[in-house]
Design brief:
The structure is a single chain. The chain is mainly α. About 50% of the residues lie in helices and about 0% in strands. It has helices spanning about 5, 35, 55-95, 100-110, 120-135, 140-150; strands spanning about 10, 20-25. A two-stranded antiparallel sheet has the order 1-2. Helix 3 (about 55-95) crosses helix 4. The longest helix has about 45 residues, at about 55-95. The radius of gyration is 43 Å and the shape is flat. It starts with a helix and ends in a 14-residue tail after the last helix.
C-alpha cells in the first residue's frame, strides 16, 4: 500500500503529472470546535441571561403573590365549609331514612360504577359447564336439569320451589 491510501486527509492531485498530496482542509485553522470544522453551518447562539429584576418589581410581585395566596385560602375555607355542611345534611338524611351513609353517597355521586367484579358468576359457571359438555361429547345432568327447569317446576334437589 502507498502512503496516500493510508492517510485519509490527503488526496492525489487532479493534475496527472503532480503526485504530491493536497490536504483536504487548511492546516493553519483550529479544528477544536464543531463550528470551526463546519464553517457553512449555522450555530446556536449562547443564551443571554434575563435582565435583573429591580426592587420595585420584586415588591410588586410579592404583593400580587400575597393577594393570590389570600384569595386561594379563602376559596379553600369556603369549600371546606360547604363540604362540612353537606356531610351534616347527608348524615341527617341517613338517620331520617334509616340507611347508611354509603348508600346515600352512592345515590348522590355521578361516578359510574362499571368495574367488573373478580369473582365467579352463575352465568359464567353455566356456560363453562355447557362448553365442557359440548367439547367432551358427554351429557351433564346439572346443565340439562337447569335448562329444562323453570320457576314453576321442581329444582335440582327435587323440591318444589313454591
Amino acid at each position: 500500500m502507498t502512503s496516500q491510501s493510508i492517510l485519509p486527509s490527503h488526496t492525489p492531485s487532479p493534475v496527472a503529472g503532480n503526485s504530491t498530496p493536497v490536504p483536504l482542509r487548511d492546516t493553519n485553522t483550529s479544528t477544536s470546535t464543531w463550528a470551526a470544522r463546519n464553517p457553512t453551518h449555522t450555530t446556536i447562539l449562547c443564551r443571554t441571561p434575563p435582565p435583573r429584576v429591580s426592587e420595585a418589581q420584586k415588591a410588586s410581585r410579592k404583593i400580587k403573590r400575597d393577594q393570590k395566596m389570600e384569595l386561594t385560602k379563602l376559596l379553600y375555607d369556603a369549600v371546606a365549609k360547604y363540604l362540612d355542611e353537606e356531610k351534616m345534611r347527608i348524615q341527617s338524611l341517613a338517620h331520617a331514612h334509616n340507611v347508611t351513609l354509603k348508600h346515600i353517597n352512592n345515590m348522590i355521586s355521578s361516578q359510574m360504577k362499571y368495574h367488573s367484579l373478580h369473582k365467579a358468576h352463575l352465568t359464567n359457571a353455566l356456560l363453562h359447564a355447557k362448553a365442557k359438555e359440548m367439547n367432551a361429547g358427554k351429557f351433564n345432568l346439572f346443565t340439562s336439569a337447569i335448562r329444562n327447569s323453570s320457576y314453576n317446576q321442581t329444582s335440582l334437589l327435587g323440591h318444589n320451589i313454591h
